Amino acid sequence: xxxxxGPILLLLLWLLPGAHGDVLPSECGHSKExxxxxxxxxxxxxxxxxxxxxxxxxxxxxxxxxxxHPRWVLTAAHCFLRSEDPRLYRVKVGGLTPSLSEPHSTxxxxxRLLVHSSYRGATTSGDxxxxxxxFPLQASQFSPVCLPGPQTPLAIGSLCWVTGWGxxxxxxxxxxxxxxAVPLLDSNACxxxxxxxxxxxxxxxxxxxDMICAGSx
Length: 217
Prior knowledge:
By secondary structure, the chain is mostly beta strands. It has helices spanning 12-15, 187-195; strands spanning 2-7, 41-42, 51-56, 60-69, 72-75, 89-93, 106-115, 129-133, 159-164, 167-169, 172-173, 178-185, 211-216. The chain contains 2 helices and 13 strands; from the N terminus they run βαβββββββββββαβ. The chain starts with a strand and ends with a strand. Keywords: Disulfide bond, Glycoprotein, Hydrolase, Protease, Serine protease, Signal.
């Protein structure tokens, strides 16, 4: 069973009024060329031009994120458990590996962090955050990801792409950006599957209303 649960992105339009107003729907979601997270595979360069890496001083690569605007990155609140000081973070734009020495990549300083105020841990709501970059990126450096509108239906069984440098096997992080297509699952069914064989989780609600669940069973 390979499941993924995470924050849904529909509230973003309310969190960032006007911040993405100059990014038209026709300008987002385009790879620059046509064309393992567990079960995934190495991706091709520039296939996911909105994918970025987050770096923390003295730690290194800690998380992935998505460019949604020339100056804004969408990521997860759990990436900032160590610190919410924006001066300690950098955003790496471009490239396929977590390495800072990779050609065709840019390291950008962070001006501000906005971490959802309700986030309290892995099984709580609000695992979402925004990073404001110190300066806007040039159009040649990125392509923003498309965001669903508040009323966009997310049908069970729809295929979604997951990308990142997550573990490709037990305790081993990927050295190259990974991609995998996974179907959306019913949240209630997903909740039941997470509790299978885990009596210590009895009575706990793991899949919150602002999360989606996807994966293979």
